[in-house]
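Repro:
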Amino acid sequence: MGDMKEALCAIREAIRIEPGNCMHYRILTYMKTFTEGDPELAAMESLHKQQASMPIEQVVAIKFALNKAYDDLNRKQEAFDLLADANKLMRGKINFSPEGERTAAERTMAAFTHDAIRSRRGAGNLSDQPIFILGMPRSGTSLVEQILSAHPSVTAIGETPAFHKAVEAVLPNYRTDPSFTDAELEKLASRYLEINEPITRGAPRFTDKMLGNLWYVGLIHLTFPNARFVHVVRDPIDTCLSCYATKFGGTRQPFAYDLYELGSYYRLYEELMEYWRAALKPHEILKVRYEDLVQDLRGQTERLLVHVGLEWWERCLSFEDNPNPVSTASAGQVRRPLYRSSIRRWRPDNKALLPLLEGLGPYAGLSHV
């Protein structure tokens, strides 16, 4: 909700009650900047020394927590070494197949050829209420959501699997048989809007930033041909290293815990987005660069509002004051005015970074700066 002072008090009370729970310290690190001699840092380091007797999830939590603290203290290599350990432990717990992701992408593109999309365009619900925000995790999608939802005509629904749930309800065999009638597109639109109604409450527009919607862009476009898409991009290496430094909830973003797999997934994501951009008309999807937002907030905000068909609203520039709840890993960051420290973030030596660069392939040298 943005009440960082109260949040800090609450997590410190949790630490007082359970001083050995490393999860609490991981949350604490999101809310403060560490300095040398910090007693909370000393407590974290003491817990880390006990890792041999801890469950894996506790070890992972304290390593992610110390990574953030050491990063604050400019002890970058120590921080990265902790990340490598934590991510290796996480990867061992997760069932993830990069080959399966590529097969799914190929199956999706085969089902939604450009000709098929063009031939069915206009068959769905003509509402322009939804605004779909797409991008990799840690690319700036929460920032764009906060900017847009600061407009009085826009409500944010955040990262909720509403479209996926609607597909399951209306097209239960979609995974194996991605065919549908025009009548089913209408039902899909109605079900999606119905799922969101408790949050949107009839708002003229709303933002949906479920990043998994990447796989549904073709179907979404046919369901809501007048909906607008915003694709947020950030420097590929900055994006991937930020993902690598983030402990996502549960098994979300399973590709993020191995540098090669992370780079490979980014490459696949870009290829799929290029496919969708070619399928849609230029005015239907807007590409926004995170680095451009940081350098020119007003100009990029104007682009965003024009793209989604909204009049200028000055308060969109004060996105950090937006009371909209944020439940992603960027919850604390979007409560701060714009900062540039995330651009060209520190990078490990070439040997440590090599798996990521190999995974990125042609995107390794691509910069959005």
